[in-house]
């Protein structure tokens, strides 16, 4: 017979740290503000809470488009799907690469 128990407890803190939206201020600026706010919370925890073994800052990584700041994703052929500008840039770079390959093969 089996019995399910819970163990290895930990505490996860999710702070309200969204000072402004990324569409208005850019994703990198918002991410930096969030990181700094979390570091302040960590300092407060270390200063005011006893019996804390470890406090660490964690984050997720995400690819974003340098042209539109949106989530970066690609179609199967490698073409970006986030915005027309990124797709146009990809097509332009692909054509330039194809021309370079043609020139090398013709020599």
List the helices and strands and how they pair.
Blueprint: H1 22-25, H2 27-48, H3 84-106
State the main characteristics.
107 residues; mainly alpha; 3 helices; 0% strand; elongated
Written overview of the protein:
- By secondary structure, this protein is mainly alpha-helical.
- The protein has 2 domains: 1-61, no CATH class; 63-107, no CATH class.
- Helix content is 46%, strand content 0%.
Secondary-structure element order, as H and E?
A: HHH
Question: What's the β-strand tally?
Answer: 0
Uncertain stretches: none
> Which percent bin holds the helix content?
40-55%
Give the tally of structural domains: 2
Total helices: the number is 3
Which structural class best describes the helix and strand composition? mainly alpha
Shape: elongated
- Main beta sheet: none
Content of β-strand: under 5%
Our Rg estimate from Cα atoms comes to 23 Å
Average predicted confidence as pLDDT: 85
Termini separation (Å)? Answer: 76 Å
Task: Please sum up the structure shown.
The chain is mainly alpha-helical and 107 residues long. It folds into 2 domains: 1-61, no CATH class; 63-107, no CATH class.
């Amino acid at each position: 017979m089996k019995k399910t128990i819970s163990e290895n407890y930990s505490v996860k803190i999710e702070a309200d740290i969204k000072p402004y939206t990324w569409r208005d201020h850019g994703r990198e600026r918002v991410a930096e503000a969030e990181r700094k706010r979390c570091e302040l919370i960590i300092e407060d925890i270390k200063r005011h809470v006893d019996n804390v073994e470890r406090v660490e800052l964690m984050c997720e990584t995400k690819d974003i488009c340098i042209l539109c700041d949106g989530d970066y994703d690609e179609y199967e052929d490698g073409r970006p799907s986030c915005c027309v500008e990124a797709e146009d840039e990809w097509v332009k770079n692909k054509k330039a690469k194809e021309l370079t390959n043609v020139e090398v093969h013709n020599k």
